[in-house]
Amino acid sequence: MPKRTVVTMPGDGIGKIVLNEALRLLDALGFEADYVHADIGWEFWVKEGNPLPQRTLDLLEKHRLGLFGAITSKPKDQAALELAPELQGKGYVYYSPIVGLRQHFNLDICIRPCRTFKGNPLNFIRKTKDGYEEPEIDVVIFRQNTEGLYSGVEWTNPPPEVRKALETHPKMKAFKDVPSEDFAISCRIFTRRACRRIVEEAFKYAKRYDYRSVTICEKPNVIRETSGMLREEARKVHENYPDIELWETNIDAQMMWLTKNPEDYGIIVSGNMFGDIVSDGFAGLVGGLGFACSANIGKDCAIFEPTHGSAPKYADLKPSIVNPMAMFLSTALMLDYLGENDKANKIRSAIAEVIKEGKVRSYDMLKLKGGPDVLKQGAASTDQITDAVIEKLKVV
Ligand code: NAI
Ligand code: MG
Asked: What is the secondary structure of 225-238 as a DSSP string?
């Protein structure tokens, strides 16, 4: 196996902390790779007017593999105010670099596993007739990552030709009196090729990892064209997988039933926005942001990241108290992608052991309010958690 090069993008705030812990874990696992650092995030927006510098894109163009921490992102008006004085008023516009990366490298498949680790105090519990039960959840969300409502095709006060084109649709009659400056439009764009690819990848994954069902979670009864296209492609692809069940749910009902029978679901496929929503919903049942991992996968490039952000209020605490598990689980997804499944499973098993044993717990697992005092209250620091996981690598 040739030695791989991983482009490491710590980003801002706690992104820097958790990425560093992931590298310690990879070293302890004996994963052989070269690492090259790449700049991304707020600092580069402020200094250079670009949170995703070209040199970072060049490194990813070359190595096609990235491990990402988290970035700080702000609305564009506020971002403009924080630019270095010499860059102000020069037409720089802030865009989220992570959305930029997904689009630039066409990382169209986002995979977000949400799995229960036994013994995690943050696990969802459900009331029963005479007590409580803790369902064991193993759901993997496949979120279309580049299209839909996040494709960025949107206007306030659309140009006249856009308005005119829209008015060819009979439903636009309802809006004919609205002045254009009072019109905001965000396009929900689905392409057949992207729908096809995400359902194909979802079924392949279901087969490979032995999941019983693939659920298309959309809203085709109302958003008939876009949700309808995803459903149509799913039905076609399903014909090649007779042993896997195809289920269909609506996003609103899915969220309502989330706590009723989450253990029944296997793979869930959604467009970009509903995928974002449903994956946060499921993540909340298995530990929340400290555990929510993700993979962004294109045809020949992939980037792995925890779904949490830069958590600025904890960024400067020394020692750090944030939970590195989401980053570790994202690192395991990178190893899966590289075909290093044994090493990936070792990470997951070591995490499972640490959680089951219950001696070393982050502040969020102890349900404490974050802050410097949590260590006195029994929470482990970030590096102690990493040490505990590394220790367990020896026995799993
Ligand atoms: P956040 O995810 O950074 O933090 C929200 C809260 O979740 C934190 O205050 C903390 O209580 C908890 N939390 C997050 N990660 C944790 C961890 N590893 N361990 C323990 N607790 C953790 O979201 P927030 O505060 O809304 O955004 C902060 C910044 O991050 C913003 O600038 C936002 O735009 C950005 N962001 C970046 C993302 C990315 O890089 N992919 C994703 C989400 C937000
Ligand atoms: Mg989200």
From this structure: HHHHHHHHHHHHHH
Query: Rounded CA gap, 29 and 393, in Å?
Result: 7
323 CB less than 6 Å from ligand 1?
A: yes
Ion ligand 2 neighbours (CB, 5 A) are: 276
Does residue 350 surpass a pLDDT of 90? yes
The ranges assigned to domains in the chain are 1-108+293-396, 124-148+190-285, 153-186
Quick: pLDDT tens for 81-138. Answer: 999 999 998 999 998 899 899 989 999 999 999 999 999 999 999 999 999 999 999 9
Would 1-108+293-396 and 124-148+190-285 be classified into the same CATH topology? no
Domain 1-108+293-396 has what CATH class? alpha beta
Read off the amino acid at residue 277. I
Measured from the CA of 96, which atom of ligand 1 is nearest? 34
Q: Is the pLDDT of residue 1 over 70?
A: no
192: helix, strand or coil: helix
User: Does domain 124-148+190-285 sit in CATH 3.40.50?
Assistant: yes
pLDDT tens-digit readout, 244-290: 999 999 999 999 999 899 999 999 999 999 999 999 999 999 999 99
CA angle 97, 41, 89 (to 5 degrees): 85
Residues 6+ apart with CB under 8 A from 18: 69, 70, 306, 322, 324, 326, 327, 382
Residue 71 near ligand 1, beta carbon < 6 Å: yes
Tokens of 201: 């990848």
Peptide bond connecting 319 to the previous residue in cis, omega within 30 degrees of 0: yes
Please give the full DSSP string across 86-149, using - where no structure is assigned.
Answer: GGTTS------HHHHHHHHTT--EEEEEEEPPTT-TTB--EEETTEEE----EEEEEEE-SSBT
Most informative mutation of 94, 122, 308, 351 for ligand 1 (most atoms within 8 A of CB)? 308
What pairing do the DSSP bridges indicate for beta strands 267-270 and 4-11? unpaired
